[in-house]
Queue: 2 jobs
Job 1
Amino acid sequence: MGKDKNNQSSVWNTIVNNDEVVNIHLLFNISHMSTLILKKRKELLATFELEPWSYDMLVILYQAGESGLSPKELLKRTGVASGTMTHRINLLLKSEFIISTPAPDDGRSIIATISDKGKSVVKKAIKAHADESAKILGDLNKEELAAFQQITQKLIHQLQ
C-alpha cells in the first residue's frame, strides 16, 4: 500500500510540483467536506419538510420580520434568477410557510412575509441546524474554530 502511495505521488510530481499537489489535495478535501456537509444538511432539513433553499429563504424572511421582503429584495439576498424566485415563492405560499400581500408602492408586486407556520418550522430547523453544526465542528477547539472561520472567509472572499 505504501508503495502505491509513493508511486501515485511520483506520477503527480511528473506533472506538478509538491506544493501544487498539496493544493490540489486540499481543494479536493474542501470539496469532499462540502459534499458531506450538504448531504447532512439536506437530510436534517428534510425532517422539517424543507430543502436548503426553502430553509435559507425562511431564515431571510424570519430575519426581515413583519415588514417582509419583495421578490426583488429576495433576489438580491439569494442570488437566484427571477423565474426561480417566482417558483420558490409560489412553493412556499402553497406550503403556507409564507404569506403575500400587495406591495404598497407597486400594485404589480408583492411583499412576502413569513407565516406563523413558517416561523414555527424555521425556529425548530434553526435549532436543529445549530445542534448539527456543533456535532460537525465538535472536534475543533475555540482557536481552531476561529482560524477555520478566518481561513474560509478569506477563501470565499478570494473566490467571489
Job 2
Amino acid sequence: MGDVEATGRGARWEEPALPLQEPPEGGHIHGRLGVVDVDGPSMVPTLMHGDRLLCHYGARVRPGAVVVAKHPLRQDLLVVKRAVERRDGGWWLLSDNPHVESDSRDYGPVPEELVLGRVLCRIGPRPAWLAPARWWSGALRLLPRNAALRLGGR
C-alpha cells in the first residue's frame, strides 16, 4: 500500500509477524488489526516519527480518537490523524502538531468510507494505549496526572 501520511509526510506498512492485515483496496476489514509505522511530524507530541501503531479496522470512530484514513486527494496515501468531529461530508481530521496543516484545514472533511479504523495503541518504541474505553476515561481522573498520561489520559 506504500507510504502513509501520519504527520505531514506519511506512515508505512510493515509485514506483521502476527496474522494482521492491511485493509483491502475496496474497503474495511471489520474487526481486523493492522500495524502502521508513523512517518513524519504531524502527530507530535502524541506520536513521533518511527512509532509503530496497532489499528483496529472498522472500529467505531469517536471524536478525539486517533484514526487511520485514506488521504481524500491521494487515496494511495494513508494518514494518521485525530478525528475531531463529524461534519457534513465526513470526519474533520486534524494533526496534533499545530505547525502542520496537512489535514482537514487543507482538504476539508474526510468521507466516512475513507476513515479505515481507530488506532488502539502505540506498540513501539514506547508502548502506550491510545484508545481507552469510555469508562476508562473516568477512572483516569482518579489517578495522579503523570500516571494518567502514561495510561492514555489527557
